[in-house]
Amino acid sequence: MPYQQSMVRASWLYHVEGLTQAQIAERMLLTRRRVNELLAAALDQGVVRISFNSPLTENVELEAELRQRFGLTDVVIVPTPADEGQTATVIGRAAAMYLERLIQASEPNALGVGWGATLRETVHHMAPTNVPNVKVRSMMGGLTRGSEINTFEIVQRFAKVMSAECHYLAAPIYADSPQSRDTIVAQPVFDILLQEATSVDISILSVGDVSSESLQVRYGLPPDTDIGDIRAAGAVGDLLGRYLDKSGMEIDHPLNRQVISPSIEEYRKIPTRIIASGGHHKHEILRGCIVAGLATTLITDADNAAYLLDRHVSE
Questions:
Q1: What is the pLDDT of residues 153-162, one digit of tens each?
Q2: pTM of the model
Q3: Among 308, 285, 304, 294, which Cα is nearest to 94's?
Q4: How far apart, in whole angstroms, are the C-alpha atoms of residue 74 and residue 185?
Q5: Given a cut of 50, is residue 281 above it in pLDDT?
Q6: Contact status, residue 91 vs residue 276, Cβ threshold 8 Å
């Protein structure tokens, strides 16, 4: 994250939440020396006096409240851009910096990734690194036509920027029918690929809603799919191509039996599950995922954070 934001966050954790420098280093994935430098700089620059003197403090407060209320391991909140078209870029940049530090600190064996505009921006903003022992795995099938937001392109770009191994789940997101899906995943090769998709230490996914804003709705659904039927069944959005209701539970709809992705139960076994997503149209699906405990780490914008905390958000 940017230097100024790191300085404010470290200062908040130290002076307000009472964490030790060692705890802050672990939380922020930094060295203790770096934390000490940030705290000293905050005093030198007048960010910390008797109270905080920074516009970023509100976001740090939102992060702390969200961690406490929903039992999240970590939260990163970015300012909501005035131009909502920049939301994926802003969140993607924050997700890139977070993921870089996490990979450096935890040295994972495998990383699972999804698809979409936010993850496209995430990998675009990641600094090249060399972790050849890490396996980068796609966690769901891909689009049947080319797109830079497709799972195949996204997983390849993650592997390239990390100089890591690339593992595709070479299948469409949705089979033609539940029966076709069962036939596909019954093949040993696909059974292994689905098991490997959740045999990762870290996953990073975005979520989709059920509006025309959703790339999944526009590009990923089978032909003749009626999104109105999906909404009528209670869906507020999807995770891993599985449509969920406002409580984060899968809806009863054939589409959820056609999707070629790990089950939610298997997904929950991943130790670090990052959801990076934002925008006003993601309010309900993000709430569902967070309430259901589907993420251990949340990266989103301030308006979504306020919505999750039941604060008024102007539309």
A1: 899 999 999 9
A2: 0.82
A3: 304
A4: 34
A5: yes
A6: yes
Written as six digits, the tokens of 156 are: 């390849």
Q: What is the pLDDT of residue 46?
A: 76
**Poorest-confidence range of 144-153, 213-222, 224-233?**
144-153
Residue 300: pLDDT over 60 = yes
φ/ψ of 236, rounded to 5, equals -115, -5
Q: How confident is the model at residue 50 (pLDDT cuts 50, 70, 90)?
A: very low
Mean pLDDT for the chain overall: 90
Q: Determine the pLDDT at residue 56.
A: 66
Burial of 225 (0-12, 13-18, 19+ CB in 10 A): middle
Distance CA 278, CA 275 (A): 10
Q: How far is C-alpha 260 from the geometric centre of its chain's CA atoms?
A: 19
